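This section describes the prediction task in plain terms. A model, or a person checking by hand, is given the sequence of a single protein chain and must write out its three-dimensional structure as a string of tokens. No templates, partner chains or ligands are provided. The sample shown here is typical of the held-out split.
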Amino acid sequence: MQVSSSVPGALKAAELLSTAGAAVLGAGIALLWPRLADDAPAILVVGALTHATGMVLKQRLQRGQIQPRWSRWLFAGCWIALALLGIALVWRVAQG
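The expected answer:
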């Protein structure tokens, strides 16, 4: 996928997409508890995919720009957290 940072607002749009995905992901986590738990897996998947897409788009837009070291660690940490959450979700669904 070709992403150009020359499009006005493209970086902000990617940030917004990532933030929206994180919000939906958080809502999905919250729904894992008693009420509406049946909808939690679908909400988690949508939130995780949206957040991941936003993270990737933002990183592509920022390529070539000097980034602080901590931001790279944070980016990697987000991917690790999403992977662990996915594993936990699969584990929970498999347990029935």
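For orientation: The mean pLDDT is 76.
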